[in-house]
Amino acid sequence: MIKATLRRIAPQLAILALALALNFIVFPDFFSIRMQNGRLYGNLVDVLNRGAPTALLAIGMTLVIATRGIDLSVGAVMAIAGAVAALAVTSGHHWTAALGAGLLAGAVCGLWNGFLVAVLGIQPIVATLVLMVAGRGVAQLLTEGAILTFNDPGLSGLGSGAILALPTPVWIWVGVALAAGLLVRRTALGMLIEAVGVNERSARLAGVDSRALLIAVYLVAGLCAALAGVIVAGDIKGADANNAGLWMELDAILAVVIGGNSLLGGRFSIAASLLGALIIQSVNSAILLSGMPVEFNLVIKALLIIAILVIQSPKVKRAVYLLRASTGQPARETRPPAPRRPAEEGRT
Amino acid sequence: MEQMAEPVLQATGVSKYFPGAIALDEVDLRLYPGEVHALLGENGAGKSTLIKCLTGAYARDGGAILLEGVEIDPRDPLDSQRLGIGTVYQEVNLLPNLTVAENLFLGRQPTRFGFVDHRRMKRDSARILAEYGLEIDPGRLLSSFSIAVQQIVAIARAVEMSGKVLILDEPTASLDREEVELMFSVVRRLTARGLAVVFITHFLDQVFALCDRATILRNGRVVGSRLLREAGQTEIVTLMLGRQLEAATRTPHEAEPGEVLLSFAGFGRRGAIEPFDMTIRSGEVVGLAGLLGSGRSETCAAIFGAAPADRGEARLRGLPVRLGDPREAVGHGLAFCPEDRKIDGIVGDLSVRENIVLALQARQGWAKPISRARAQEIAEGYVKALDIRLAHLDMPIRLLSGGNQQKALLARWLATEPALLILDEPTRGIDVGAHAEILNLIERLRARGMALLVASSEMEELVACAGRVIVLRDRRQVEELTGADISPDAIVRAIAGEEEAA
Amino acid sequence: MRHSPRLPLYVTLATFLLALIACVAQFPAMLSWRVAANLLTDNAFLGIVAVGMTFVILSGGIDLSVGSVIAFTSVFLAVLIRDAGIHPLAAFALALGVSTLFGAAMGAIIHHLEMPPFIVTLAGMFLMRGMAYVLSTDSVPVTHEFYGWLQSLYWRAPDGGRFRLIGFLMILTFLLAMLALHRTRFGQNVYALGGSAQTAQLMGVPLARTTIGIYAVSGGLAGFAGIVYSLYTSAGYSLATVGVELDAIAAVVIGGTLLSGGAGFVLGTFFGVLIMGLIQTYIVFDGQLSSWWTKIVIGGLLFAFILLQKVLGWATTARIRPATASAARS
Asked: In terms of CA atoms, which chain C residue is nearest residue A128?
């Protein structure tokens, strides 16, 4: 089983190694880590730390995408959760209560998305667009447009503190990833989610409660986004409704796609998505360390997506398959995905 | 009329092979101007494959097609349309979001100074539709009209674009009686103009009401061509269902069935199956016979809650029970192998093992996972018991052959140890060996006390395994045959709707 | 009841009128030439880009790159005029060419590689934003007499409100788009594609040409919006117009176009843009309310229209097909 997982994430590991090597080339001190005041410092630690929000979002997004869905609202949910937590803590509540309030807000957002998708049968991209647009407004309403700063060491510790020498966000995302991984792989959830993503009709006819599963994955996505939002708020000791989580949904989707998870749903790997998140962060870091203008960051990212998408595109896969077949190499199981349902039959 | 000089369309020796199957085996078809020619056969007989070869949707693997004596080789349906062969499908192949006029003229709109001339388009549309007896406003959306009108618009477009041969592929499947009449009058008008029409339908009454001649396909071969005014319904049904009267092996069980498991009263679903009463006992196999569209599959889907009933009641072991969706049905010990394995059965990208334990897992709930070892054990057990051929249990189920997929689906349901197993066309698309194995399995399960409901278009199958056969026609249960009365003959007679006396 | 395809459009019009009445009831001063002129001027670039989005959404696609294309174009123009000393007119032509080609390339990828428009245009969004950064991260002012001349063109209303050139350019764009969508074969093909690409192909619609054309139109109009934006602000700034794609999508949907394609009108988009502008104007007039209410109200309207379309869709399917399991299958 571990072997199968390793084989699955091998390409992502290779790309990550490449990205890290690139960091090393442009900045030979990249791998040096030093201990200071009982805390580890270094570029590698930074990658793990700065990658936390994307990694958290990628966990929820992986599950949503596995069901053939997508959640555009996670960036806005981050802003809402950060605002709620900041609001709670500034009005005198304990930071754990603030964290709870933030998570609750995320859960409500996730349930709303799940309701639109699973019960009303609205296409996921359309359904989550509503909260993507309105959510940031709600967050701004909560913070009244300003950056709502706080001075609570507990809450800011979530974003900028350290436990056992490692930054707290690293612990959080690794912990959530392990919990999510155990939850989907040690129970039957993962298999059922994949079944719904591959063929919802068949799954439903086999007695799978696809509606509840759909709601659940959007709920998880909402919770992950809320946690990411609280971390970001903690990091800057304030809730910035305008910028918190801005465009983060795109990074999260990108992480999932780089993780080799198909946007058409089905088989998924959270580990691979997390590697995807780290790859994105490493590339960011390499661009930063190389002294290249930050401006190139987006262009490189875009070219990266395009390259990965082209490799993933059904047509290119088919061409590769034919090429392999014609050169006589065994094609094994890499058969082109059989065309699914004839038309893109939306969830109606 | 049948002695007209030249056939307008002549197909000779058309063959089509699919991996592991011969879909069409040297099929001949002659179509004369002014005739309505029925193409008959059960599902999988090769009707739609033949149509697709004629219209170029499939590249044929052999044979020639002559249109007005000239050999043609359409590349795709558009090409065949240009050559003169127009096709209208059951699912209206027009765009519901455009107006009637836009649908009629899409791709060839009249223009004025480079702009689409809507006024002329509407005027021309109204004129064309009037020829078909339709007085409607062509400026309205297509979707605002009934399916019948939409079908006639589709016919009008096909005829306007093509004009020699018109293929109607189950155009009446979702029409009511009056609408069918309207459609018929349109077809008669067209044949009067010399057009040749191919008509595909499952409704034999309609065949006899409209058509001049019929070609019957079975298993990819032409088994007969008849002038309909010289043929009887029984003869046609016999040809379609292929009664090789080799004293159909009727061996079943004379054992008494057990207690009543499920009973239905007034159970039905609007537009799918008329209300019916039925009982199913443990340890018996109930067969559902009838042509396609007679309500066979709809009965199965209603009982399992896949397309839930909207009237009547069901009782399980005497107690009222709700069968509102598959989950509830599975919870009550029902199981259902649907007809279309690819769309409704397998979860293609998941492994064979996961597919086998899927229903059991779904019933147990997500929190109680079936361990990998246990899943392996269950799957291996069924792979052995049902002789499923595969490389290993980790391979995606979509890579299995049809017969092995079906066995894996049976394994999925047997793993839940159901009280009632519903099988819709259990042997469709399966090779002969697997066919016999599945029939054997049905008998073994029955002997163990399971109740089975088997819907099938193959009478031999029903005769061989069912203790009771319910015959459906026009979405209605019309007859129930028991014990010794079950014979291919009796089933055919009931389907054809002849009196017992015949 | 059989609903007319124009029903959502009427709902949009009614929404606009209600909003207008509500605004005027509270602030009678809002009913003036000046406000009308500003509404047109301030929303000119959004209107133009929303026209392109209407084409895309009608065809069943989506284009997330438009906001970035506007920003890129504005920077591109500023840099060309300042550093290369090119005449603005030539720069306009170049910018239009680049953005149109860019859109066409995305269309080609979507069609030929069979990839979802959402992802392709997402990559396009990153790429164009990145290109804008690469050109310049600072705001680049445009100071050219030709700009000044263009900006000085306006029609002065009786109360002093100025209907500027860019407002007219937006209206012209809408008129041309109406002509193209409703009166050309290309326009009909756009609707056909949105109805069902498969059926459209069977009926002889050239899929490749139409898809590429649609995204080229959207890209080109985004470039045009960039030109208008550059005239509006006299500058090019790579961080500008972030999120305009969302505003454009919202305007199209509030304008009564079905987000899954096939039904809608350019005229609706026009009123969608005006509704959004009206909300902003109201907030300005109110002085107390904060600008984030705009997003919330727009989100709410978005939801209302999505729900409206869903309900209309249910009503249609329930009536036309007696949903038999077998009919759905074949």
From this structure: C303
Stronger pLDDT, B484 or A220, i.e. the higher one? A220
Q: Look at residues B42, B486, B428 and name the one whose alpha carbon lies nearest to residue B238.
A: B42
The strand pair at C140-141 and B476-482 is best described as unpaired
- Where do the H-state alpha helices sit in C184-291? 185-195, 197-202, 207-233, 244-254, 266-286
Interface of A with B (CB under 8 A): 1, 186-189, 191-192, 194-195, 198-199, 201-209, 266-267, 333, 335, 337-338, 340-341
Please count the CA atoms within 13 angstroms of the CA of C282 that sit on its side-chain side.
19
Banded model confidence at residue C167, pLDDT cuts 50, 70, 90: very high
Q: Which of A142, A147, A299, A345 to mutate to test the interface with C (most CBs of C within 10 A)?
A: A299
**Measured distance CA(C243)–CA(C108) in Å, rounded:** 24
> Strand B70-72 to strand B85-88: parallel, antiparallel, or no bridges (unpaired)?
unpaired
CATH code, residues C7-317:
1.10.3470
Say if C209 is an interface residue toward chain B (CB within 8 Å). no
ipTM over the 0.90 cut-off? no
* Residue in B115, B143, B340 closest to C316 by CB: B143
| Nearest CB neighbour to C126, from listed A126, A295, A301 | A301
- Give a yes or no: residue A259 inside a domain: yes
DSSP state of B257: P
Which tokens is C248 given? 């454009």
Residue A14 buriedness (CB in 10 A; 0-12 / 13-18 / 19+): exposed
Flag if B347 and A1 touch (Cβ within 8 Å).
no
Q: How far is C69 from chain A (nearest CA, A)?
A: 13
Whole-number average pLDDT of chain C: 89
Q: Is residue A229 part of a domain?
A: yes
Give the B-side interface with C, CB within 8 Å.
Answer: 77-78, 81, 90-91, 93-98, 102, 106-107, 109, 111, 114-116, 118, 141, 143-144, 146-147, 173-174, 270-272, 293, 297-298, 301, 306-307, 340, 343-344
Amino acid B250: pLDDT = 52
Evaluate whether residue A227 is within a structural domain: yes
Distance CA A41, CA A30 (A): 11
Domains, chain B, with CATH or none: 9-97+141-241 (3.40.50.300), 245-333+418-502 (3.40.50.300), 350-416 (no CATH)
Strands (E), chain A: 33-36, 39-42, 147-149, 162-163, 166-167, 238-240
User: pLDDT tens string for chain A (348 positions)?
Assistant: 678 888 888 888 888 898 899 889 988 888 888 888 888 888 999 999 999 999 999 999 999 999 999 999 999 999 999 999 999 999 999 999 999 999 999 999 999 999 999 999 888 988 998 999 899 999 999 998 889 999 999 999 999 989 988 999 999 999 999 999 999 999 999 999 999 999 999 999 999 999 999 999 999 999 999 999 999 999 999 999 888 988 888 889 989 988 888 888 899 999 999 999 999 899 888 888 888 777 777 788 788 778 877 776 777 777 777 776 665 444 343 333 333 333 333 333
CATH number reported for the structural domain that contains residue A239 in this entry: 1.10.3470
On whether residue A181 sits in a domain, the answer given is yes
Nearest CA in chain A to B306: A205
Could you give the 3-state DSSP secondary structure of residue B450? coil
Name every residue whose Cβ is closer than 8 Å to that of residue B158 and which is 6 or more positions away in sequence.
B81, B86, B87, B88, B166
CB pairs below 8 Å between B and C: how many? 96
- What residues of chain C, 177 to 196, have a C-beta less than 8 Å from chain A? 196
CA distance A73 to C302: 14
**Side chain identity at B225, as an amino acid letter?**
S
Enumerate the residues of chain C whose CB falls inside 8 A of the CB of residue A138. 292, 296
User: Contact at 8 Å (CB) between C75 and C236?
Assistant: yes
